[in-house]
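Researcher: I'd like a structural prediction for the single chain below. Treat it as a standalone chain; there are no partners to consider.
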Amino acid sequence: TTVESGRLSSDDGEAELDYYFVPSHGEYSELAQTTVIYNHGNYAGIELYQPRVRFLHEAGYNVLVWDYRGYGKSQPETAPSPEQFLSDARQMRGHANTLVPDSSKIIVYANSLGGVPAVEMALSESPCALMLEAPFTSMSRVSGSNSATSFPESFFSQNHFDNVSKLEAYAGA
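Model: Treating it as a single chain, here is the predicted structure.
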């Protein structure tokens, strides 16, 4: 299997997003056309999540994994604004259509913080499946569980990262 590495220039021209596309090994013909876009957690970059990528590949899927701004080899090394983070997710979802064998067979998968870009991807272009593992729910729920005081979502992000509400809209679509 030849892994394709690439860099995608962000729509705002301020970032280069690092990604890898791992084609299916083809042993399971029923999965060879299906691609999993993997949105990783908050800790480190793609390199930390290689066991998950390998598991998905060995199961027979094509896998697209990418690093957010400020993670891994993506540039710049600074964290994106909420608007940039969500825009990058939508752009990577669109770019996936140019890489995969069948754009109607895309599964968007996320772990932890990856739930934020995954939900944004699903809202921008509906996948055949959305899988969220220990997803990031919202800034207000995170702040409430990690501090003595609870702050509303708007205190942190103007509701950019309220996946609970976004998922309600996605389910109703």
